[in-house]
Amino acid sequence: MDARQLKIAAAQAALEHVEDGMRLGIGTGSTADEFVRLLAEKVADGFRVQGVPTSERTARLCVELGVPLFSLDDLPELDLTIDGADEVDGSLGLIKGGGGALLREKIVAAASARMIVIADETKLVETLGRFPLPIEVAPFGMTATRIAVERLAERLGLSGAIELRPERDGPFLTDGGHFILDASFGRIPDAEALANGLVAIPGVVEHGLFLNMASAAIIASQSGARTLLAKD
Ligand SMILES: O=C(CO)[C@H](O)[C@H](O)COP(=O)(O)O
């Protein structure tokens, strides 16, 4: 299986958890896109689902393929969210936000009774941090916010570049009109301490550490898709 087939395998396995009539959070990224394509085929066959997208990108794909969409204000309590991840550790701690949708992804996941992560095995890590941690920040005072993040990192014994995510003509802008700082810490031994410290910095809107949020992760490899469950 090539990289795309692995994503499809994870998405296919996740689809088995989606029941007729569910209120469904729909994630963002290339793996989530495969899930949307498979879901759209079922919808075309008469399967009913009420989707809440986690980004404008996902919304566009859903509209194009005929997946019915609602806003989170229409459906503030969801049955299930299916989303990808940039990293998954053994406790189902995640790094997300490689696609820049972390704020809406986290809000939607938090409004869901369950979150299932879909990924290929390259995303599995022992300790989070190999993937640069996306930190969504307000454009106002971004330099002061970056300095505050650097000081927090120092206090926690973390080091590495913290860079403003670029796009073609300037900084990358999220769906909410914010910037993203990508923090290359390499290894984050105490993700909880970092998460708590980041939310206490006023200019930080959200960060890509999703801790104790996923109930399961479906990991696709050459030998098939296996499911890791969160420990209670
Ligand atoms: O968090 C995300 C977007 O904000 C994505 O879920 C994450 O980047 C994984 O994307 P992909 O499936 O393309 O590897």
TrEMBL record:
Family statement: Belongs to the ribose 5-phosphate isomerase family.
NCBIfam families the UniProt entry points to: PRK00702.1, rpiA
Listed HAMAP family: Rib_5P_isom_A (MF_00170)
PANTHER family: RIBOSE-5-PHOSPHATE ISOMERASE 3, CHLOROPLASTIC-RELATED
Record protein name field: Ribose-5-phosphate isomerase A
List of catalytic residues: E105
Role according to the record: Catalyzes the reversible conversion of ribose-5-phosphate to ribulose 5-phosphate.
Reaction equations catalysed: aldehydo-D-ribose 5-phosphate = D-ribulose 5-phosphate
Signal peptide start-end: none
Gene symbol of the encoding locus: rpiA
EC code: 5.3.1.6
Keyword Thylakoid: no
